[in-house]
Amino acid sequence: xxxxWTFKRRDGSTFDGSxxxxxxxxxxxxxxxxxxxxxxxxxxxxxxxxxxxxxxHDPLTGLGNRxxxxxxxxxxxxxxxxxxxGRVLLFVDxxxxxxxxxxxxxxxxxxxLIAVAQRLTDAIRVGDLAVRLGGDEFxxxxxxxxxxxxxxxxxxxxxxxxxxxxxIDDHTVHIGxxxxxxxSHLDQTPEQLxxxxxxxxxxxxxxxxxxxxxxxx
Length: 217
Description:
Layout: E1 2-8, E2 14-25, E3 31-40, H1 42-56, H2 66-77, H3 80-83, E4 88-95, H4 97-104, H5 106-123, E5 129-134, E6 137-141, H6 148-163, E7 166-168, E8 171-173, E9 176-183, H7 190-206, E10 212-214
Parallel strand pairs: 9-10
Antiparallel strand pairs: 1-2, 2-3, 4-6, 4-9, 5-6, 7-8
Helix pairs in contact: 4-5, 5-6
């Protein structure tokens, strides 16, 4: 039998370990005791944690990725708030970001994305999930208690924050963000909610960029 526990050394320090227990018998078949073998699995646990994080986080910005969003939406859709008060989703599409890559190069572009991720994190609250879908697209799943009006206020903070200039390696970079907001409702799938927010963001960009559009149910 193999069990994994947290073990304590004589000096009081602890480590993650696996313990194998095997029974010992005498020649007549009578149980005479047990043999315990303990192995330190701290490094294995650390590797597993790194792999798990890599699977659910964007390697550039450190935000969650599409996998983590799908996982969170899968949990959210089974919660009562999904079809009672609704869950608010923000789709954040950066404006003029392609020009940054085209004129200043991808290294500067990557630095801008990292800075955007930080500003996005600062604009939301504990309990909200920010992810980078890829490229210049980000999504925020707001906590269950957030209403549409509160979601609009958060979206405004995001637009204002990303609209401020970025100073990257002595370059002054001006971009912006268009945000689409959607609210979940009964029988709506996570994919439909995300698509609805994406379409609202497209509408916001079409209306002049730096705008917020609320998807109609």
